[in-house]
Structures are given as C-alpha cells and as structure tokens.
Amino acid sequence: MHARATILPLTLDRLTYARGGETLIDGISATIGASSRTVVLGPNGAGKSLLLRLCHGLIAPTDGAVRWAGADAFGRQDVARRQALVFQRPVLLRRSALANITYALSLQGRLGRGERHARARDALASVGLAHVAERPARVLSGGEQQRLAIARAAALKPDVLFLDEPTASLDPGACRAIEDAIRAIDAAGTKIIMTTHDLGQARRLADEVLFLCRGRLLEHTPAEEFFERPRTPQAAAFLRGDIVG
Amino acid sequence: MGTAVPGREARLQGFDEALAAAWRLIVTGDTALVEIAALSLKVSLTAVFCAALIGLPLGAALALARFPGRGAVIVVINALMGLPPVVAGLLVYLLLSRAGPLGPYGLLFTPTAMVIAQTLLVTPIIAALTRQVVADLWTEYSEQLTSLGAGRLRAVPTLLWDARFSLVTAVLAGLGRAMAEVGAILVVGGNIDGVTRTMTTAIALETSKGDLPLALGLGIVLLVIVLVINAAAHLFGATARRAAG
Amino acid sequence: MRLFEITRRAMMAAAVGAALWGFAAPVAAQTTEKPFITVASTTSTEQSGLFKHLLPQFTEKTGIEVRVVAVGTGQALKIGERGDADVVFVHAKSAEEDFVAKGFGVDRSDVMYNDFVLVGPKGDPAGITGSGDAVKALQAIAEKKAPFVSRGDDSGTHKAELDLWKLAALDPKAEGNWYRETGSGMGPALNTAAGMDAYILADRGTWLSFKNRGDLAILVEGDDRLFNQYGIILVNPTRHAHVKEKEARAFIDWVVSPEGQAAIADYKIEGEQLFFPNASKKGA
Question: Closest to C68 (Cβ–Cβ): which among B99, B100, B193?
C-alpha cells in the first residue's frame, strides 16, 4: 500500500519568534504527524495564532526552523501549495461564492477551467452551500462565509489545513456546521491543525493537543491524556477554567 | 446702463441672461454647441481611458511593490495631481512642436495633442488614488492572498478588480479634471474654430470677448453634461455594488 | 443577475470601443481630410470676427481650409519661428520685419489697417474727451494719475501703446500704480478696465464687439498715430520643409488680391467698417 506523497510530518525545531524585544514564541520543538486532528490550546495571548502563521510560512521565525518532511522532494513553492489556512474572520473577494473558490484553484494552477468549476461546485456542496454558488460572497452570513472559506481551502485538497479559531465569531448553529465540515475534511485525508480557546470544541475535535502558555509548549499529548491527566499546573488550571498566563 | 457702480440688480441680470442663454443653446440643439460638446467628450474620455490604462496598474504596483525610493515616487505622483494644466500644456507643446523632438508627426494643434496633454494631467490622479485604495485593500487581503499563493505581482489584477467601485470614483475624478481644464488644451490645441475648440476653450474665448452671459451659459451646459455622466455612473455603480456585496 | 452581467459587459465593451474610436478617428481623419493651412494670428483679429467673414470665401474658392491659431502677437511670431504654422498674420510691423530679417519668414505684405481708440470712463477725470491728440491725452492721464489698464502682454496692441508713451516722453511703469498691466488679451483687459473705470487703449474691432462695457466709451480717436498696420508673412519654407508653401501662397495672394481686399473692406460691425485694406506692393 502506497501512502500518498505528503509534506508531513511537520517538525518544529526550537522555533522562536521575537518582536520589539519581546519573545512571543519561545523555542518550541515538536513533531506533528499525519495521523490525527491536532488542536493547539492555550489561554489568550499564548501565541497560538502566531504559531500557526509561523508553521504556514506567513511569518519568518527569528530563530529555529519549521521543517516539512517532503521539503526536499517537493520544492518550497509546492510545499506552500499543499497547505491552506482558514482565518478567524473569513477573507473573501468581492465576487460570487463559486468564483472565490475557482480563483483559489486558478492560483494553485493544477486544473483546467472546467475542472476548477467542477471541483468548486463539489466543495460548495460538501459544506451545504451549493444553493448560494452565484451569490456575492460578501452578502452571505458570517457562518456561511466561514463555511465558504473552509470549502475554498478544502477544494485545494491540501495535505494540511490550518484553522485559526474558526468558530470564534460564530453562533452555535454555524459552529456546528463548521465542526462537521472539519470532520469531513479530515475524513477525506487532510491533516487538521487548528487553534481554539473553546474547551468544548477542543474536546469534541482533538485527537492530539499542543498546549501553549506564554509562547512555550508545555504539553504535547494525546487528547484523552491531556483532558484527563494534565501534567502541568498551568494546563490543569486552564482545564479548570481559571485564568492562566 | 449708465450707473457708475453696477448694482445688485445688474449682477443678477447677468446670471438670468446666462441661464436663458444656456436654455436656448440646449433647446435649439445649436450645431456649434453640439460640435464643441462632442469634441470635449471625445478628448476627455479618450484621455481618461489612456490615463486609466496607465494609472490603474501603476498605482496598484506602487501600492504593493517595495523598492528603494518608493516613498519619493509616491510623493512625486501625489504632487503631480496638482500639476498646473498650462504647464502640462507647455511641456506637450514643446514636445510636439515642429521645432521639438516629435515635430515630424505634425500632431500640434490637433485633438490628438489635446488627448496627450490631458492624459498627462489625469494619469497622476488615477495612479495616486488607485495606490491609496489598493494599499488599504492589501492590508485587508495580504495574509489570505499570500496563503493562497498569490504574490504581490499576481495580486495586482485581483485587487484592482476587487476595488472596482472605489476605482470608478478615482476615474471619475480624473474625468472631472479633464473636462474642466482649459490651460493645457488651449496651448496644444490652439482653440481652432471647428477643429480644436472645446467647451472650456469656447468659454475662455467668450469670456475674453466680454460676452459673459454666453460664456456662463456654455458653462452651465458643461456642468449639466458632467452631472449627467456622474449621475449615470452613480446609478450604475449603486446597482452593481448592491449586487456584488 | 445574468442579464445584468451581460448588459454591464456590453456597456463596458461599448465604452472601450467608443474610446478607441475617439482616439483613432481624429488621427485617421488627419490623413483623409481636405487640404488645410495653419495661420498664426492674434486674438484681437479673431475676436473681431474678421476670419469668420473672410475665410469661408477663400475656402469656397480654393477648397483649402484655413485653421487659425489665435494667440498674442509675440506667441504668434514664436509659432511661426518654430515652424508650427504656415502663415503669420499679425499687426506689429517692426516685429514682423525683424521676423523676416532673421530668416523666419519671407515675403511680408501689407494687408490692411484698423485703428486703436482710447477708451475711458464717461466721467473722464483726465478731461481728454474729443481730443484728436492721443499723445497729449496720455500725458493728461499721467498727470491726473487716472487709472490706466495696459495689456502688458507683448502684443501688437501693447507695443503700439508703448510707442505712444514713448512719444509722450513718459515711462508709465515708473510713474506709479495708476498704470496697471494685466498680462492678458484685449477682451480680458477691457473687462478689467470696465471693472475699474480705467482708461485703456483698444483696437476698434474688439471694442465694437465687446459687450461688457460698463461705464466706458470711446474718448479719443482718429489720430493717425493710432493706426494699426496688419502684415501677412509666409513662414520660411527653406527653413521648415514641411510648410505648405503652395497653399499658403495661395492664401496670401488671395488676401492681397482685389477680391480679398474687397472682402476685408466688406466686413462691418454695427454697420461700421473695421478694417481698411491697403495692400499695394509687396513690402519688405
């Protein structure tokens, strides 16, 4: 059985990021494999969003490195094209929902026009947005826009999908739809790495947890272990609902 | 008319005469008026078209590119928005004169020369306003576009299309400047009756002849034309904007 | 929605098409239109309406269109010097002769003359009304320090005015701020004079068609030092090979011919003849 060529595992090697004299990410080392849904947890200001952006390559580390296993096989541009990131607030272009997805696919550059349209329609259908394909993306509701952003990312069939607090600004109904979408993408073979400060969501979705506090990686354990038997006092406090940090 | 000081009544009378003159011109479909109005529109619309062709990508590139001296270029282009039309006219005159470098083409005292001069005046306006609009948009979109794989260069057409409603305003500003100016086209066109006489140069001529009511009447007609163009653009834009969200 | 998109795209295409046509048409027209010459003349001549009366007669006879660029005398001569016109038709004899002497033009001919009039407020603080002596009138104005507007734009009218001041042995610029230079054409200068109730030297033609007179009227006229000679010059074809010599000579020859001269004499404003043809010989 041949595993599909992938850029995973992702290795963080003493990853550090400092700005304005302040160290925001402090020497994080970890290896993230392909097999599970990884959730990055931590109190506000812990550096979760920053970590995701560093992994995705939007920001360059000031020390240490982000390494993708397939980097030698693929070349830097390809490694970038095999990942996607969904932001907390969806950023959509002033065009139709369908056009937003076909645009992303055309940037990726692998498909012809007809194929892009077909793949975009499928992506919309998979998140239940087929009925708004021709609607301007910006008139959709917040939840619909975020679903669209996820559909856009999923349409690219990335090896890794980063999600930065994807449901932070959404109501519970929309939240549920997003979580379903995430599960579906995971089932289709894409590695999920997401951040959240919603413990309930973390419990629902996580297979593996990275717990950050003040820019440091305090715990990196399977989900059950983290929730049942946290090893550090900060994690325990966080799980109790105390203010940590 | 023998009073030493023109009374308030006399001044109002002048304005009434102007309105009457304007009405007469429009209602009778005065052929001379139609001719100069058509030339005004042809010259200005062509100039704005050329200026947009240059200014839109130039402004967008300036918003996104990073190079030494970028700040200075921005300052210069902003300053050129205030380029005195008569100076622009003189520069183009020296260029197109038989004694000048482009003399052999015999372009002086033709509508083409007027288009060139007005393009010179309008391009900085469109470029400067585009730069501002696109720069603002880039702060909103840069992370998402970078994540999707659109570098700065590739982002230019995307941002221009996304900003299309704001850019229409920039283009209308350019059109306003073109339709209103007289200094440049007077110098390079020569205000030749039946060949290079436009609304504004006709107004200048009638003013200098002392026929102020006719001059003002022509001015009112010109304002009406410009108002109609702007109203049409606004209605068109409002509908489109609502459709695009 | 689809219909809107289609309509919008159609309109954009139409706008682009219109713009391209607007740009191409004038350029295309230039290659297929009828023959024309460019004449550099003065604003006062054009504003007198002479060209509207005269040129159609020439065009009908010869099929040659005449395009007049009307600017100040100094600028008209400069245009001729640079070769941007085929003919120069101004009224500043010494500047014209200089133009020919420097080789910028050839074959200067007298064409016609009109006269200047000294215009001023009906109240006439300098008391010059009815005087036939323009020089004495200027001296009176200077003595009374009455406001006087000058074109100050190096035009034929301005040069004539300066010549009169010289004859009056006065340097008005040094005299005081009753002497105001506007740096503009005849019409705007008259506007200014009307606004300030000032004296001003104007050509009769512009005055007759000037509509914003305010309180001004002709106070002094008829002095033969007020006569204003017009000359027509061919821009030197040896110096500028592109000059349309044949058509330009046709125009010049017609203007000084009995037919052209009659047409000039025929031009009237309010029943008054404006220009007095006096082409007799080919002058230098």
Answer: B193
Whether residue B42 and residue C188 make contact (CB cut-off 8 A), yes or no, is no
Q: CB C166: neighbour CB atoms within 10 A?
A: 11
Backbone dihedral region for residue C105 (phi beyond 0: left; psi -120 to 50: alpha; all else: beta):
beta
Whole-model pTM? 0.83
Alpha-carbon distance of B61 to B35, in angstroms, equals 39
Owning domain of residue A109: 92-157
pLDDT in tens, B92-113: 999 999 999 999 999 999 999 9
Radius of gyration, CA atoms only, chain C = 23
DSSP state of C225: G
Predicted confidence (pLDDT) per residue in A46-55, tens digit? 899 999 999 9
Question: A85 and B141: CB-CB below 8 Å?
Answer: no
Instruction: Give a yes or no: residue B215 inside a domain.
Output: yes
Whole-angstrom Cα distance, residue C234 to residue B236? 54
Q: Residue A244 has what pLDDT?
A: 79
Of A48-57, A131-140, B25-34, C269-278, minimum mean pLDDT range: B25-34
Quick: pLDDT tens for A132-165.
999 999 999 999 999 999 999 999 999 999 999 9
The tally of domains found in chain C comes to 2
Look at residue B16 and tell me if it is in a domain: no
Amino acid at site A24 = L
pLDDT band at C269 (very low <50, low <70, confident <90, very high): confident
How does pLDDT run across A8-28, given as a tens digit for each residue? 889 999 999 999 989 999 999
B149 contact residues in A (CB cutoff 8 A): 77, 80-81, 107-108
Residue A53: inside a domain, yes or no? no
Residue A147 counted as domain residue: yes
Q: Do B42 and C38 touch (CB under 8 A)?
A: no
CA distance A83 to B44: 48
* CA-wise closest residue to C114 among C281, C270, C271, C265: C265
Residue A168: what residue type? Answer: A
Is residue A198 a contact partner of residue A15, using CB atoms and an 8 Å limit?
no
Same domain, C271 and C187: no
- For the question of an ipTM over 0.85, the answer is yes
Residue C6 lies in a domain: no
| pLDDT less than 70: residues of chain A | 1-4, 70-74, 245
Please answer yes or no on whether C84 and B109 come within 8 Å at the CB atom: yes
Chain B segment 133-172 residues within 8 A of A by beta carbon are 140-141, 143-144, 146-150, 154, 158, 161-162, 164
Q: In whole angstroms, what is the distance from residue C246 CA to residue A31 CA?
A: 90
Within-domain flag for B171: yes
Residue among C201, C215, C198 at smallest CA distance from C165: C201
Query: End of a domain among C211, C226, C241?
Result: C226
How many distinct structural domains can be found in chain B? Answer: 1
Six-digit token string for A15:
């990853």
Residues C234 and C93 in one domain: yes
pLDDT in tens, C43-82: 888 888 899 999 999 999 999 999 999 998 889 999 999 9
Can you give the pLDDT at residue B245? 64
In chain A, how many H helices and how many E strands? 10, 9
Distance (Å, rounded) from C-alpha C168 to C-alpha A52?
A: 91
Domain of residue C256 covers 34-114+228-277
